[in-house]
Amino acid sequence: MAEEGLVTECQTVELWSDIFTKASESKKLTVVDFTATWCPPCRFIAPILADLAKKMTHVIFLKVDVDNLTSVSEQYDVEAMPTFLFFKEGKMVDKVVGAKKDELVAKIEQHATQVASA
């Protein structure tokens, strides 16, 4: 399972499936960062995401490299990096495309609050 306070990198399809299934079974918001090592905006947002993971331990943060896990990025129609997908119980509930820190934080707070109040 993904560790609290960390962004868990899914390096294989099997690992992705295992971690995503466990995250989906929890009631926690899951934020998946679709990224690429060659992408400057991805490198810009990575430390911000790591900081958010430390502060928001009630949220699961996962990272998928689109070049390593092409099938996963294609499954969710990811066409630009970074793309952040938000899931609750395995269902996608929102999306942020681009390294937009304020929008990312706002969406996490919005959806994490809805989970807590549900």
UniProtKB/TrEMBL annotation:
Per UniProt, residues of the Thioredoxin domain are 1-113
Q: Which Gene3D superfamilies does the protein's record reference?
A: Glutaredoxin (3.40.30.10)
Provide the species name. Linum trigynum
PROSITE patterns according to UniProt: THIOREDOXIN_1, THIOREDOXIN_2
Q: Which InterPro entries match?
A: Thioredoxin-like_sf, Thioredoxin_CS, Thioredoxin_domain, Thioredoxin_H-type-like
Highest rank taxon of the organism: Eukaryota
- Its name, as the record gives it, is Thioredoxin domain-containing protein
Record-linked Pfam families: Thioredoxin
Q: Which UniProt keywords apply?
A: Disulfide bond, Electron transport, Redox-active center, Transport
